[in-house]
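Our working data are protein records whose layout never changes between entries. Getting from the letters to the C-alpha cells is the skill we practise here. To make this concrete, we reproduce a full record directly below:
***
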Amino acid sequence: MMLQVAAPSWHRELATAIRDADQLMDRLGLPDDLRIPARRAAKLFPVMVTESYLARMRRVDPDDPLLRQVLPLDAETARIPGFTTDAVGDQQAELAPGLLQKYAGRALLIATGACAIHCRYCFRRHFPYGDAPRTLDDWEPALATLRADDTIHEIILSGGDPLMLTDRRLADLIQLLAEIPHLTRLRIHTRLPIVLPSRVTDELLELLVSSRFSTIMVVHANHACELAGDCGVALKKLVRHGIPTLNQAVLLRGVNDTADTLADLCEQLVDLGVMPYYLHQLDRVTGAAHFEVAEDIGRALIQELRRRLPGYAVPQYVREEQGESHKTPLLS
C-alpha cells in the first residue's frame, strides 16, 4: 500500500486562492457597483489573491491599499498613449527562450509564468509566458548561452515568480546553473514571502543556503500593512538564515504615494532586517495608467524620506528604460 505524502501547506493555500472577481467582492463586502467593471477588467487579466494577503485587507473598503493592488477596475480597459504591452523592452532583451539580458554582468531567467497573486500594475501582465521554457530540457539553449559568456557572473530568477516552482524543480534548476563556473551569484526576485509567506519553509531555506552561490533575495512590498503577521515571520526567517534580503517597491497612486506611508514601509522593513532597495517609477504597461504618480511628486517624497530616515532606510528612486545600460536614477 502506497503512503500518501501530504502536499506542503503553501501548495494547499495556493489551491484555495481567490480566482474570481465576484468572490473577491463577496469576501470583502465591497459595493455592488464595482462588480461589472471588475468582471470586465478581469477578462483582460485574471484575478488571483491568496488567503493570507486577503486577511490583511480591511473589509468594506474599496480604498484599502492592499485591495487596490489586486482589484480589477474599468480604468484597466482604457488605452492611454505612451503605455504599451512591453513597457521595459523584455522581448528585445531576449538572448534565448526564457533568458533576458539588459545589463552587463548579469542575466535573467523567466523561471515560470505563474504567480501567487496578480498585481494589477504588473509590468509583465502581457508577457508571452507560453513561449518560455517549461521543462529542464527546454532550458538547454539558455544554459548554453550562459556557458558561452563568461562575463556573466550573476543569474537572476524572475517570472512570474520563481518561488512558485516546487523545491525539487527549483533545486534542479539551481544545480544546472551552479555547474556553470563563472556564475557566482544567484538573485531571486519574488513576491511570495509577502503574499504567500508559508512558501518560506525550512526546506526552501536549506536549499538556498546549501547552494554554492552567494544568494540574494529581492522581495516586493509596497505598503507596511503587507508586512503584518505571517509575512513578518517569513522575512525574519530569510534574514536569520543569512540571506541578504532587499525590498523593491513601486510608487502607486492611492497605495503608497504619501511620505507617511513610504516612511512607515521603510522603517518596518528595516526593523525586520530587510533593506529598502528601489522605489520604482511605474512601468508604463497597458492597463496600469491609473496607478501612475508624477515624477516630481516621487522626487519630493524621496526628499522627505531623506529628512526623516537614516540613509540606509531610503530606497533609490529609479525608472527602467528600454535600451539603457542601468536603471535611471530619478533623484541624485
User: Anything to note?
Assistant: The chain has two domains: 14-77, 91-329. The longest strand covers residues 106-112. Residues 1-5 have pLDDT under 50 and may be disordered. The chain has twelve helices and ten strands.
